[in-house]
Specification:
Length: 279
């Protein structure tokens, strides 16, 4: 028996359903149910929330979320081999788990979820960053989700919470911190997974702010930040010269020295520059 419910241990589930992890799907399974329950707790009080989970695999985190009281879970799984194992979990938690077989990049989850909504996932490595950027850049804010509790490679997690002046600071930090509170809440070594990945992992918790931290046009801010960090070794007057002929004057008006590089510029200053370019 596992420690959190009456279902079999995950190693037994994986053996029964012959679920060897596939590299092509970015799969690395967490088998310690006490650990998956610990990750689920980082998502906060789930008793009145629907939860979106991407890439549940054999259902380790799914069981953790259910055991921690999630009202209802929508799990999107691309690998059809995992569906029988997930069906067993749905049977053990009647009416609380819906599983969709498909690609999370192509499915609109809102047809199946009732607010308030939280997202919690051990994201497949090959789509994790793309999904995060989508969740951070909807056309309207606040978004459909209250919080994101997501597993990433440690390097990606550090990019999300990075501060100006660090090597990890870049577009992902700006996108995340403009609209959310971000923090790393858990670190996991490679040996926590089957098979062990080559890198360490970390869980990041992002809480949506009611409105962006500083006023700025989202499209302009995104373009400025992309251009600045695409040529992060260049001074901003060179990296951003394609945006407007008078970029030096605009930088100065926003309180940024034209000779600074992107990694030295704060989120607040990037927003000031976006407003200046919006005039």
């Amino acid at each position: 028996m596992s420690a959190i419910d009456s279902l079999p241990p995950l190693r037994e589930v994986i053996a029964t359903h012959q679920l060897s992890a596939r590299k092509s799907l970015g799969q690395n399974f967490l088998l310690d149910l006490n650990l998956t329950a610990k990750i689920a707790r980082q998502a906060g009080d789930l008793s009145n929330c629907d939860v979106l989970e991407i890439g549940p695999g054999p259902g380790g985190l799914t069981r953790g979320l259910l055991a921690e009281g999630a009202r209802r879970i929508l799990a999107i799984e691309k690998d059809p081999r995992c569906l029988p194992a997930l069906a067993e979990i749905a049977e053990a938690y009647p009416g609380r788990l819906k599983v969709i077989n498909g690609d999370a990049l192509e499915i609109d989850p809102l047809a199946y979820l009732t607010p308030p909504i939280r997202i919690a996932a051990n994201l497949p490595y090959n789509v994790g960053t793309e999904l995060l950027v989508r969740w951070l850049t909807p056309s309207d804010w606040p978004p459909f989700w209250q919080s994101l509790t997501l597993m990433f490679q440690r390097e990606v997690a550090e990019r999300i919470v990075a501060r100006p002046g660090s090597k990890a600071y870049g577009r992902l930090a700006i996108l995340a911190q403009w609209r959310a509170e971000t923090r790393i809440v858990l670190s996991l070594p490679p040996e926590a997974f089957t098979p062990p990945p080559k890198v360490s992992s970390a869980v990041v918790h992002l809480s949506a702010l009611p409105e962006p931290r500083y006023p700025a046009n989202a499209a302009i801010l995104s373009r400025v930040v992309a251009a600045a960090f695409n040529q992060r070794r260049k001074m901003l007057r060179a990296a951003l010269k394609g945006m407007t002929p008078d970029i030096e004057d605009r930088l100065t008006a926003a309180g940024i020295a034209p000779t600074e590089r992107a990694e030295q510029v704060s989120l607040e200053a990037f927003c000031a520059l976006a407003r200046e370019l919006d005039r």
